[in-house]
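Hi F.,

I've been meaning to write this up properly since the lab meeting, where we talked about keeping a consistent format for the predictions we share between groups. The idea is simple: the sequence comes first, exactly as it goes in, then the structure tokens exactly as they come out, then a line or two of notes. No screenshots and no reformatting. I'm using this chain as the first example so we have something concrete to point to.
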Amino acid sequence: MAEKKLNDLFLDTLKDIYFAERQVLKDLPKMAKAAKSAELKKAFLTHRDQTEQHVERLREVFELIGRRAQAKTC
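Output, unedited:
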């Protein structure tokens, strides 16, 4: 029973993180476009590239546990 609850908590947390990372990925290009300084724009674009890697890793985790990558609004 405790194991099921722990698995459910893990899956819910994974879905929350997946949602957040995808949301950030969607918003970073907008923030880069609005940035006034070239340095800030570059930072947003670098962060976008890193976030793309995070999303891919999360998809791999979902695959490893035999679940479909699914976001849960948090």
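Notes:
The mean pLDDT is 95.
The two ends are 25 Å apart (CA to CA).

If this format works for you, I'll send the rest the same way.

G.
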